[in-house]
Amino acid sequence: MSASRPAAVIVLAAGEGTRMKSRTSKILHELCGRSMVGHVLAAAAELEPRRLIVVVGHLREQVVEHLKETAPEAVPVVQDQQNGTGHAVRMVLEQVGSLPGTVIVTNGDHPLLTGATLRELVSTHEREGNAATVLSTDIPDASGYGRIVRGGGGDVLAIVEHKDATSGQRGIHEINVGMYAFDGTLLESALKRVTTDNAKGEEYLTDVIAILRQDGRRTGAYKSPDWIETQGVNDKVQLAQARRQLNDRILEGHMRAGVTVIDPATAWVDVQVTAERDVVIHPNTQLHGLTSLAEGAEVGPNVTLTDTSVGAEAKVTNAVCVGAQIGPEAIVGPFTYLRPGTRLAARVKAGTYVEMKNAVVGEGAKVPHLTYVGDAEIGRGSNIGAACVFVNYDGVAKHKSRIGEHVKVGSDNMIVAPVTIGDGAYTAAGSVIISDVPAGAMAVARAQQRNVEGWVERRRPGTPSAEAARRAREDR
Ligand code: UD1
Ligand code: MG
Hints:
Layout: E1 8-13, E2 30-31, E3 34-35, H1 36-45, E4 51-56, H2 60-70, E5 74-78, H3 85-96, E6 102-107, H4 115-128, E7 132-138, E8 147-150, E9 156-160, H5 167-170, E10 174-183, H6 184-191, H7 207-214, E11 219-223, H8 236-256, E12 260-261, E13 267-269, E14 274-275, E15 280-281, E16 285-288, E17 292-293, E18 298-299, E19 303-306, E20 309-310, E21 315-316, E22 319-322, E23 325-326, E24 331-332, E25 336-338, E26 343-344, E27 349-361, E28 366-378, E29 383-384, E30 389-391, E31 401-403, E32 408-409, E33 414-416, E34 419-421, E35 426-427, E36 432-433, E37 442-443, H9 455-459, H10 464-475
Parallel strand pairs: 1-4, 1-6, 4-5, 7-11, 12-15, 13-16, 14-17, 15-18, 16-19, 17-20, 18-21, 19-22, 20-23, 21-24, 22-25, 23-26, 24-27, 25-27, 26-27, 27-28, 28-31, 29-32, 30-33, 31-34, 33-36, 35-37
Antiparallel strand pairs: 2-3, 6-10, 7-10, 8-9
């Protein structure tokens, strides 16, 4: 049975998260290219709720700003004082009004949660006709969690918080994950009757279960078989564990779709990265943001790509690329840095100790060694000799260089922008090119060489060089 669209998903994110020991709100900590709350919102979005509400409180400016940037459809609701999870949901209903229909409530610090699990929760809730359905799971060490108390027939009677539980109840291994489906109208009525008569002196959302039971309503649970997925993050150890889990899940998805990952332990791939079949990811590779890898592309070892597209059959090794486009069959690396605005056409080579920024390089052009290309166009088939600098900055403004097609720039050239080198032109090694070179010309822009005969024997007598010079002279 498929789940219908819920009236709302409410994400609880007002808590302090003290164990993170951070200036940054717990739920804004990042893993695999998204904040913790971003992962929860992405799972929630799969249900297509009519409203997406995030309860904010502690460090709320940060959280609200983050939501504006990354999830503008989410509506923040402020909970001024964190008087408990029940209080948080009550504040939502007071501020946005009643929410008739199915209302999902979830903690904001469960980044491994999937849309599929939420859908199971909602369809169990609807199939059983429950007033409330809790997501539960069996966990080896249940301490700290709310325990699911079941009646003789197996139905859910209550959730008892660890601090309030009897020693018998503490023996229960089925825990409340912190996600629920409610009938919105019945939830509102029950929340008005939640007290603070408990160990923490807070309004517990979990008390709603027993209250609805007393009203004669049906309450149930969807028990998730995957307790790892339901883990929350409370400190940076758990954050690292969750990142590892999420990364493994992402890599598994790519491998099942035909990507070869040589070493899953050292390949880190953000959620939004795409990779086509026969891509190979070598060890120690980080793929961030909106990076995409086309069929047969090979990246790594030791590569970090951010918002970079790699064309089919291209190879990138030992490189850092940010905001770059790498064409099909291009070769990048080893030891290459491509910065934003770099666009390499098909079969371009950007070689060793080469840095490029805002550089558009035409098909088959080569920049093989020790070169900086900034704010430039290089036409197809051109070759830039070793150790060239595109001198784009005069201390005040950036200027542009234009290199035509099939140009051969000699080694150790300074291309002082703004300057244009015409199609098919050559430049001599060691040139400082400060004015335009016409198509087909050879530009020589360096001092004439002068040899001072016999200088070494006269001025460096007795040195091995002078001895070598003497032997050479006597042999002549
Ligand atoms: C809660 C559950 C517990 C469950 C556990 C799972 C209650 C009473 N208990 O306990 O049964 O096993 O989660 O992790 O709900 N929050 C607010 N406003 C508040 C208080 C909390 O927004 O006033 C938010 C927090 O930011 C967090 C979530 O609610 O995202 C859960 O709060 P937390 O204090 O961690 O509850 P637990 O004691 O862990
Ligand atoms: Mg908690």
